Amino acid sequence: MRNMRRLAVIGVLCVLMMAGFGTSPGMAESRAHVYVLRGLMNIFSLGMDTLAEKIQRHGINATVHNYSEWQSLADQAAAAYRAGTEGPIIIIGHSLGGDAVMQMSAYLGRKGVPVALAVPFDSTQSFATSSNVGRLLNLTHADYGRMSRGTGFHGTLSNIDVSNDHSIDHLNIDKSARLHAQVLAAVLAAVGGSHHSPTANERRKPGSIAAPEPGSDGVSKPADSTPAPAKPTDGASGSIAPAKSLSDRGTVVIAAPEKSRSAETTSSAR
């Protein structure tokens, strides 16, 4: 009798093990990976950490890095994508991290790797969006960070101007709970998750951000917006000549010129 019970227990354990390990080695499921990039010195973009935590609560892998790591991260992402262990790929960043979003996306495009969603928070310069990007959601409060359609780009491009919100500037745009909610919804859509889509009435509520229709490259900007501020500096104050704005359909060189060490100390805050 005791032996029969023992055999029954062993049988149950075998069934559970087979259920748990039914997938053969090498058939690992692909998973989304959200690369979140901070800006200068890892101290001006801590809102990116908060956003990553919000994404992680939905069971999505989100990792936070400094913008300077973008090329090595892209190499890792490309290898994982080809191995079938990573995808879709999503890239989000603030300030110099926003620049790195565009550079990393273009680099992955040259490797033949798609980027499902790219989200720059107030980049320090304008870029053309590479053709491998499915959706570009650009959040900015000034014209120096306008994104345009690059050669072969057929995805959705939205330049969202939040300059009418006087509580938002370059140093805190990454911490806006309202923008976090919009980006989280875009992330969930990119990975196939469910989220609440705002109704037409909700989009017209005061203070809401109305995104352009899919496929458009127009700018969403409230009528009462204030003039765009000058390009930010490394600190909370200081002046610098405004950067020249670019049209949505202009051709822009993706790779930014190398900066000297002295020039970096006077670049925009990240």
User: What's the CATH first level?
Assistant: Alpha Beta
Major beta-sheet overview? 7 strands, parallel
Look at the helices and sheets and give the structural class: alpha/beta
Average of per-residue pLDDT values: 74
Please count the helical segments.
7
| CATH fold-level label | Rossmann fold
Number of domains: 1
Radius of gyration: 22 Å
- Please provide the count of β strands: 9
Q: From N to C, what is the helix and strand string?
A: HEHEHEHEEEEEHHEH
Low-confidence stretches: 12-28, 194-216, 222-231, 233-270
What share of residues are in beta strands?
A: 15-25%
Spatial gap, N to C terminus: 71 Å
Q: Strand arrangement, largest sheet?
A: 2-1-3-4-6-8-9
Just name the CATH architecture.
3-Layer(aba) Sandwich
| Percent helix range | 25-40%
Shape: globular
Could you describe the 3D structure shown?
- Helices cover 30% and strands 17% of the residues.
- By secondary structure, the chain is of the alpha/beta class.
- It has one domain (29-229, 245-262): Rossmann fold, CATH 3.40.50.
- The strands form two sheets. The chain has a seven-stranded parallel sheet with strand order 2-1-3-4-6-8-9, with helices on both faces. A two-stranded parallel ribbon has the order 5-7.
- Strand 1 (33-38), helix 2 and strand 2 (61-66) form a beta-alpha-beta unit.
- The chain is globular, with a radius of gyration of 22 Å.
- The chain starts with a helix and ends in a 6-residue tail after the last helix.
